[in-house]
Amino acid sequence: MTHPVESFELDHDRVTAPYIRKAKVMTVNPAYPDCVISKFDVRFAQPNQEFLSNGALHTLEHLFATFIRQKTDQLIDVSPMGCRTGFYFVFCNDQEPAWVARLVREALMEVCRFTGKIPGASRKECGNYLEHNLDEAKLWAERFLKVPEADVIVVYRT
């Protein structure tokens, strides 16, 4: 049985980045219907118009994985989108966009202040340790933070 890919159903010409969108809530195991996960799109760049460099995307991935986990034990995974316009976040339970927005914004404020060594970015820890760009990651973080918290959870703005 095939299921449509949820993100392919999104009209990428109508969305207005940056935004945070609850993409899906799903039961992990039918035997345990109360055990659910929620997936969010955290979009930084306007689809089909711009994208993050590999270095910025990679650095934000490492910093999100570190900073968000310092704020909650509900994060399962953060993964870059293949189109390089943002990230997928997966959390335990049915989380609300406003909660995710607060976590993302807090993490991005930390990105803006960050001056140290990128966590997990050594040859031993990372499969592409040479491709990071903290300066660009900070620029994308600043840009995302310019959108008010209440507006960042609105996907279709005019």
Q: Which stretches are low in confidence, meaning pLDDT under 50 for 5 or more residues running?
A: none
What is the molecular shape? globular
Distance between the termini: 38 Å
Largest sheet: 4 strands, antiparallel
Considering the protein shown, what is the CATH homologous superfamily? S-ribosylhomocysteinase (LuxS)
Strand order of the largest sheet: 1-2-4-3
Given helix and strand content, the structural type is alpha+beta
- CATH architecture level-2 label: 2-Layer Sandwich
| CATH topology assignment | Gyrase A, domain 2
Q: Say what oligomer this is.
A: single chain
- DSSP strand (E) fraction? 15-25%
Q: Kindly state the percentage of residues in helix.
A: 25-40%
The helix/strand order is EEHEEHHH
CA-atom Rg in angstroms: 16 Å
Keywords:
158 residues, alpha+beta, Gyrase A, domain 2, four-stranded antiparallel β-sheet, 4 helices, 4 strands, globular
Description of the molecule:
By secondary structure, the chain is of the alpha+beta class. The protein has a single domain, classed as Gyrase A, domain 2, CATH 3.30.1360.80. Helix content is 32%, strand content 23%. It is built from four helices and four strands, in the order ββαββααα. It has a four-stranded antiparallel β-sheet with strand order 1-2-4-3. Helix 1 packs across helix 2. The longest helix has 18 residues. The chain is globular, with a radius of gyration of 16 Å. The protein starts with 18 loop residues before the first strand and ends in a 6-residue tail after the last helix. The model has no long low-confidence stretch (mean pLDDT 93).
